[in-house]
Amino acid sequence: MALTLPELPYNKKALEPHISERTLEFHHGKHHAAYVTNGNKLLEGTALEKADIETIIKESYGDAAKVGIFNNAAQVWNHTFYWNSMKPNGGGAPTGAIAAKIDADFGGFDKFKEAFKTAATTQFGSGWAWLVLDGGKLKIEKTPNAELPLVKGQKAILTCDVWEHAYYLDFQNRRPDYVDIFLGNLVNWDFANKNLEG
To answer: Is 161 annotated as a binding residue?
Structure first.
């Protein structure tokens, strides 16, 4: 199987009270799992069947005949990255190299937060908000549906999933509240630092 469903990097209750066990059961156990199953079905018998996920994403991007493969593979990648972008007792001000880089590239953590929240809340419909490294500089991007920085030559540092299934059971239509909680209580700055170094 080209695509696999990773275990969550914490137990399903670990992000409570911010993200409920029920949300993670649906989001990881149903949505993420479905992208894996559907993607593998579409890949069966193709030249990409045994390729790694990044190759599958790059080779299928922009190809109308492979849009289903791209959507499922990219969503497997995006979700795996999203789970790691959070941790129990996360959030708040960053530390280490990412803190200095945010200060240098955004003019301070508060400006970063404001820009990230704007991107996450103004992404129309389903999509993602990203902190990326682009040409040595940190930037904030938003992408619709399954789109991701990888296909733009950018390096993902962190992401927040703004598809409704990511937050609806816990926040209903209050996406701004979910983004505040993500930044204040969930962001995994250790993961961001690893991505910045790697």
So the answer is: yes
